[in-house]
């Protein structure tokens, strides 16, 4: 495997895994403005503080040297894999019909109940943890790469309650208002794990009411962790990006909700229902019902079809507006910005005005005009 550093000139080493230099994309002149971080697997991630470009070593080869995906893989000595973009763009299918409810088992949405909120100790500790995780979002390379890797800006992360926890933390359960647990060995567990990764805080007027961490890929492989880990004591309520009184989009992922809020420039709010309408409390239900226009973008997979059955049963006024040429909005946005550009796949910024215009015509399916 060949290092990406072999293809970039004038890079200076800052640490064992971090290099910096002049951005080969925009040509910014700060010596520490363009950052390359080598991974334990021999791959690399990059980020530019000026043009805000970010990605992995293959994407950098494509952008700088104009190589195809396979050519970039060959230059770096990486085994190419089928990509979501290539598979879905080849299909060029842009309309997913509204799935019908199963005749034999129509879904009946549960009645929303008031949420059970965390205790004051938990909320205070969670708020302090979030403040720590949001420090240095513009200066810590790993935090920048994690946030910009999801096409979010540090400002959006700050605004939406997203932060970065660089390493596992073990804190007192009692300090968070949680009772000790009994371990498998019969001994009490007095510590609470706050895993490393992208921290997503769900907030309400009272403050931080839930914390979810998108765990590091290496920890998922070596420690057997789930992709997302909700911190014990969190309220079981959806994530909201935006404010009341705006058109509203239902999505499955909190990071997609933040991306929609950012790329719509505050014109479209979003609620992440986590697929199975997790914790649809009465306050969130009222927030959704009060929206002047309700759109829905479940994932383009089997789970998304189940989610849409549930969402449409709970909110018959919702208009189905799926992502184009990708599983979800995050993947669609990535595909729209990945070389070679497929003009049939829009970025989220391009997608939002299209679906709002479509929804104003009060239909039930959406297809982007080719």
From TrEMBL:
InterPro entries xrefs: DNA_primase_Znf_CHC2, TOPRIM_DnaG/twinkle, Znf_CHC2
GO molecular function annotations of the record: DNA binding; DNA-directed RNA polymerase activity; zinc ion binding
Gene3D superfamilies linked: Zinc finger, CHC2-type domain
Domain Zinc finger CHC2-type per the UniProt entry, residue ranges: 13-76
GO biological process terms held by the UniProt record: DNA replication
Coiled coil location: none
Source taxon at top rank: Bacteria
Protein name: Zinc finger CHC2-type domain-containing protein
Taxonomy of the source species: Bacteria, Pseudomonadati, Thermodesulfobacteriota, Desulfovibrionia, Desulfovibrionales
